[in-house]
Design goal:
The complex is a heterodimer of chains A (about 600) and B (about 475).
Chain A: E1 3-12, E2 15-20, E3 28-32, E4 37-45, E5 48-53, E6 65-72, E7 74-77, E8 85-86, H1 93-100, E9 119-123, E10 130-131, E11 136-141, E12 147-151, E13 158-163, E14 167-169, E15 174-180, E16 183-188, E17 191-194, E18 203-205, H2 216-221, E19 229-233, H3 240-250, E20 255-261, H4 265-274, E21 291-296, H5 302-321, E22 325-331, H6 333-346, H7 360-368, E23 372-375, E24 381-390, H8 400-408, E25 411-412, H9 417-421, E26 434-435, H10 438-449, H11 453-477, H12 484-501, H13 515-537, H14 542-546, H15 549-560, H16 567-587
Parallel strand pairs in A: 8-21, 19-24, 19-25, 20-21, 20-22, 22-24
Antiparallel strand pairs in A: 1-2, 1-6, 2-5, 3-4, 3-6, 4-5, 7-17, 9-11, 9-14, 10-13, 11-12, 13-15, 15-16, 18-23, 23-24, 25-26
Chain B: E1 11-12, E2 15-19, E3 22-26, E4 35-40, E5 46-54, E6 58-63, E7 76-83, E8 85-87, E9 96-98, E10 115-117, E11 128-129, E12 134-136, H1 140-143, E13 148-149, E14 156-158, H2 164-174, E15 176-177, E16 192-200, H3 202-214, E17 221-227, H4 238-252, E18 256-262, H5 264-277, H6 291-299, E19 304-305, E20 311-319, H7 328-336, E21 339-342, H8 345-349, E22 362-363, H9 366-369, H10 379-403, H11 410-427, H12 437-448, H13 461-467
Helix pairs in contact in B: 2-3, 6-7, 10-11, 10-12, 11-12
The chains are: A alpha+beta (about 600), B alpha/beta (about 475).
Chain lengths: ~600, ~475
């Protein structure tokens, strides 16, 4: 399949030019040099072929052969994806380690999915069925609890002429035969899909279910809906990665695709070593069993970093098409944009802002638009939610990647260095962040918790923005100059900040809050405010309220009351009543 | 210009253009990308270079020693057919080398047949061991609040005139593998030290050498020196040569290696210079768009791997131009490294040593190396509490500068006192003072006890009971 199509004439880092066939296609996968380094055609001009190579090109010489494959850059899809860790072009890192030791060698050609594993295939379609694209023809238990639905490839449809009986098969064994027109195609559990082409679906729907992450500041204040897109921009050290990890751990998605794109090696190792030991609160199984990792760390070849985003999203779409809710984390999209810039620079393209190519916005849009809540081709409902981290240089949100990203996401979680310096985590600034999904998910909250979540949330937001205004005054004249009613706002806001927004990812009880716990906590803090306001109006000095033991209780309830023992909250409410009533009596 | 086509290993006369340290060579065939070349000038002197870009008939060569004295027709270029390699051996500890790895101390070339590619290879994330063993540096602001772990890369962000060199020397002198406070400390484990200087003054290099000599560490140190008056282009190789030796010592010989790189800002300027001459599209402040990847290719050569006992811990030092932490060099460094130790001008002015500004400092890996069984159980929350209290104190301090200290509430006055004591007693210590982690924690609790008990919401109630010694300790 791979024949020589050209000869290398020029090399500069990951960009290589070759002279050769005029039949090589744009974005075709090619192999370069005797080591057969994998690359992709990114430009054609007469008989000059420009290739970006996904591996280090040191030692390559002009005159080296270029082999064509006739195929675009594709990923392998099938059982065995979960629990895996791949590099940016889907090479399995554990197998690379076996082959080349602790350091990543060059020219490794390893199949992404392990061929020898046998999977228990259970057919759900029968001979004679007319099946459409992506129709489900059988199932395989990919882990003990996860059902992997075997689909007809998304570009084929026809009549089934043979279906394998239930039994153990490898991903390359035939499991069905499909008559497409006059041709009969053999189907296996393994299929391929070009990474740069979105997988098809039936219709796009409005997402009205929030992605619950167990993080109070996200779920209650700035929710993202399933199928939505959120961005997390923040300067270094502001907690992007910790936030991404928390979402990957606790989000109520059935599959997590985590792309470490140009980030630290130790971070990926942390996920690899931690996730197998953490238990998914919903399935009771190790978190790793629902996770696919793509690791193209900052010191791995830059062109493969560019590809890693597409590799990840294609795998996410594949699980979506089975009817699952998938959450994809990309950490960080800025490194991906920089990879684009680097390759563009070597091609000597005309730069737009800050050296980024003019097509940056277009590429970002293409990526974020692959998120969505859809009806799949096989009549299931599935979704891909994208959470993209952005690393703006110097923490300046006006730079091109942050600005363009803002155009294509509807949920913005702005990280704040001053919060993280004060060890307020997650350091999401409640005044700079926004979510356009509030109205979309309000009904869902009403249904699940039976309370007017949106009203409470908005009230809390009002208090917090009032606090920000008041603290400007405090900075000038000190807190004593404020009337007690306003000082109560400061007091309640402190409870909101320290007792609700702050969440300790290391604390067993606090790391994850159910929506029931979240709404109850919010309710109690607002109740405290309401009662306090009444007493202050009666003339009680704010210092008395400040010194009530309940203040400390409200700040500590997040780590004292576990999700399963919410009845303890009733006790806290009673304490508010008791302590406030006492003041009430004194000052009536 | 020459039409002679030669094989690598042979000399060509075909320089067609020289701009700064960049040379265009024509007529050479079979040249590979990133290959090393040997350049002979008209007088017969040799210098080395590296291929940056290669086409069918021409290639772009970067000359490490600069192009002074090279002429178009008098220069001969020999392509050596391999990427840049340096000899690596255990005997290199105790020796001094130039920026390309040639001996500077008058001694012979290291006797070894092991030559390693200076570019290294990326570590496979699956082969890494996540760092968990803390290093006791004896410095409270680091051990207590920004704990350094074995296998971590933790830079020092400094500015001109601040004592980053003293701090780095103190860390190198005092660093031992930390042990939990309840386990008697075992024999202090010693680190092998690889020191790389890029564009620093002779005085600075001498300071480090003296400091290593005084502490008796010199036999454990390998120094790679590219000083301020050495060719800037060589600087691009210096840290890589140093890291190549470090990798050999750590991963082949199982040693714990501490790598000190100073000053990364000079390195980045050399990179900018080359990029500029090559006419590349600049990104911020004229630095090339690949600065991030380039820095990462060095910083990521840190860590631990499963097949070796050894580890590489990196302490790069960089001076922030006009103390600007958003400058591309500290900015991109901060995005790659696992935290940063930031020095503060104000603390330095008020005579605090080491002037570590704790709020903008951070150790990302700290959470995994401290606590029960590592340092002490209360350490994580104790640290968060000190941070929160000190951050609040900053607000109080700016308020006090407006309304006056007397106008502050009682609690806020206590915060001010706490803040002053924190800077004078916790952060401040002598350059020779080596505090145990136990001492550091004790000082911290003493300071926290200056605050009312109900302000301390980050620590647990049990910890308050055990360690809090303030006035209202009883209720």
């Amino acid at each position: 399949m791979s024949e020589q199509v050209g000869v290398v004439t020029w090399i500069s880092g990951p960009v290589v030019r070759a002279r050769g066939s005029r039949y090589v296609g744009m974005l075709e996968l090619v192999e370069v040099g005797e080591d057969r380094l994998v690359g992709e055609v990114i430009g054609l001009n007469g008989d000059i072929i420009t290739v970006q190579v996904y591996e280090e090109t040191s030692g390559m010489k002009p005159g080296a052969p270029v082999y064509g494959t006739g195929l675009p850059l594709s990923v392998e899809l099938g059982p065995g994806l979960l629990k895996s860790i791949f590099d940016g072009v889907q090479r399995p890192l554990p197998l690379i380690e076996i082959e080349s030791g602790s350091f990543i060698g060059r020219g490794m050609r390893l199949a992404p999915l392990y061929r020898k594993d046998r999977w228990k295939f259970n057919p759900t379609a029968k001979v004679g069925d007319v099946v459409s694209r992506s129709a489900i023809i059988g199932t395989v238990m990919e882990t003990e609890t996860f059902e992997h639905r075997i689909m007809v490839p998304a570009d084929l449809f026809g009549t089934l002429t043979w279906v394998a009986p239930a039994g153990d098969y490898t991903i390359e064994d035939p499991i069905a035969k499909l008559k497409v027109g006059n041709e009969e195609k053999v189907l296996t559990m393994l299929q391929r899909w070009p990474v740069r082409r979105p997988r098809p679906y039936m219709t796009r729907m409005r997402g009205t279910t929030p992605l619950i992450t167990g993080q109070r500041v996200l779920d209650t204040f700035f929710p993202v809906s399933k199928g939505g897109a959120a961005g997390i921009p923040g300067p270094f050290g502001s907690g992007k990665t910790v936030t991404q990890h928390s979402i990957a751990k606790w989000a109520d998605a059935q599959v997590i695709v985590y792309i470490g794109c140009g980030e630290r090696g130790n971070e990926m190792t942390e996920v690899l070593q931690e996730f197998p030991h953490l238990v998914d609160p919903r399935s009771g199984r190790p978190l790793m069993e629902r996770t696919v990792l793509i690791a193209n760390t900052s010191n791995m070849p830059v062109a493969a970093r560019e590809a890693s985003i597409y590799t990840g999203i294609t795998i996410a779409e594949y699980y979506r098409d089975m009817g699952y809710h998938v959450a994809l984390m990309a950490d960080s999209t800025s490194r991906w944009a920089e990879a684009l810039r680097e390759v563009s620079g070597r091609l000597e393209e005309m730069p737009a802002e800050e050296g980024y190519p003019a097509y940056l916005a277009g590429r970002l849009a293409e990526f974020y638009e692959r998120a969505g809540y859809v009806e799949t081709m096989n009549d299931h409902i599935g979704s891909v939610t994208i959470v993209g981290a952005v690393s703006p240089p110097g923490g300046d949100f006006s730079e091109p990647v942050t600005q363009h990203t803002k155009r294509f996401i509807r949920c913005f979680w702005a990280l704040d260095k001053s919060l993280s310096s004060a060890r307020h985590f997650p350091s999401i600034n409640w005044l700079d962040s926004y979510s356009e999904y509030l109205d979309d998910v309000a009904d869902w909250w009403q249904e699940k918790v039976g309370k007017d979540w949106l009203k409470m949330r908005n009230h809390a937001m009002e208090l917090l923005s009032e606090e920000s205004r008041l603290s400007q005054i405090v900075k000038l004249v000190g807190p004593d100059a404020l009337p007690d009613e306003e000082r109560l706002v400061l007091e309640t806001s402190r409870l909101l900040r320290e007792g609700f927004l702050q969440q300790n990812a290391m604390d067993k009880v606090d790391a994850f809050s159910t929506i029931q716990k979240q709404i109850r906590m919010l309710e109690l803090i607002l109740y405290f405010h309401e009662r306090g306001l009444r007493i202050v109006k009666h003339g009680a000095p704010i210092s008395l309220i400040h010194n009530l033991p309940i203040v400390d209780t409200l700040i500590r309830m997040k780590s004292v009351v576990p999700n399963e023992e919410l009845e303890k909250m009733d006790d806290i409410q009673k304490q508010i009543d008791d302590q406030m009533s006492q003041l009430d009596v004194e000052y009536r | 210009m020459s039409d002679v086509i030669v094989q690598s290993g042979q000399e060509v006369v075909g320089v067609s253009r020289i701009t700064g340290p960049i040379m265009i060579v024509e007529g050479a065939a079979n040249v590979s990308y990133d290959e090393v070349v040997e350049i002979r000038d008209g007088q017969g002197n040799l210098r080395r270079g590296r291929v940056l870009e290669v086409g069918e008939k021409t290639c772009v060569v970067q000359v490490f020693a600069g192009s002074t004295g090279l002429s178009i027709d008098g220069t001969r270029v020999r392509f050596l057919g391999d990427t840049l390699r340096i000899p690596v051996a255990e005997e290199m500890l105790g020796r001094v080398f130039d920026g390309l790895g040639n001996p500077l101390d008058g001694g012979p070339q290291p006797l070894t047949d092991h030559f390693a590619d200076v570019n290294g290879q990326p570590i496979n994330p699956t082969a890494r061991i996540y760092p968990r063993d803390y290093i006791q540096t004896g410095i409270s602001a680091i051990d207590g609040l920004n704990t350094l772990l074995r296998g971590q890369k933790l830079p020092i962000f400094s500015g001109a005139g601040m004592p980053h060199d003293q701090l780095a020397a103190q860390i190198v002198r005092q660093a031992t593998l930390g042990a939990p406070t309840d386990v008697p400390s075992t024999e202090a484990e010693q680190f092998a030290i690889v020191f790389a200087a890029m564009g620093v003054k002779h005085d600075v290099a001498n300071f480090f050498r003296r400091s290593f000599t005084d502490s008796g560490a010199l036999t454990r140190v390998a120094m790679f020196l590219n000083l301020a008056d050495d060719p800037p282009v060589e600087r691009l190789v210096t840290p890589r040569a140093a890291l190549t030796l470090a990798e050999y010592l750590a991963y082949e010989k199982g040693m714990h290696v501490l790598v000190v790189l100073t000053d990364m800002t000079n390195y980045c300027e050399a990179l900018r210079q080359i990029s500029n001459i090559r006419g590349e599209v600049p990104s911020r402040k004229g630095y090339p768009g690949y600065l991030y990847s380039d820095l990462a290719s060095m910083y990521e050569r840190t860590g631990r791997i499963r097949t070796s006992e050894g580890s590489i811990t990196q302490i790069p030092i960089l001076t922030m131009p006009s103390d600007d932490i958003t400058h591309p060099v500290p900015d991109l460094t901060g995005y790659i490294t696992e935290g940063q130790i930031t020095l503060g001008r104000e603390l330095d002015h008020s005579g605090v040593y080491p002037p570590i500004a704790v709020l903008p400092s951070l150790s990302r890996l700290m959470k995994d190396g401290i606590g029960q069984g590592r340092t002490r159980g209360d350490h994580p929350r104790w640290g968060a509490q000190l941070y929160a209290a000190y951050a609040h104190m900053q607000d109080v301090r700016s308020l006090a500068s407006v309304i006056g200290e007397e106008e502050l509430g009682e609690v806020d006055q206590k915060y001010l006192k706490f803040g002053r004591a924190f800077e004078k007693e916790f952060i401040n210590q002598s350059p020779t003072e080596n505090r145990t982690i136990e001492q550091t924690l004790t000082i911290g609790w003493r300071l926290l006890s200056m605050l009312p008990k109900d302000e301390l919401t980050r620590v647990s109630l049990d910890e308050l009971k055990q360690y809090y010694q303030g006035e209202d300790a009883k209720h």
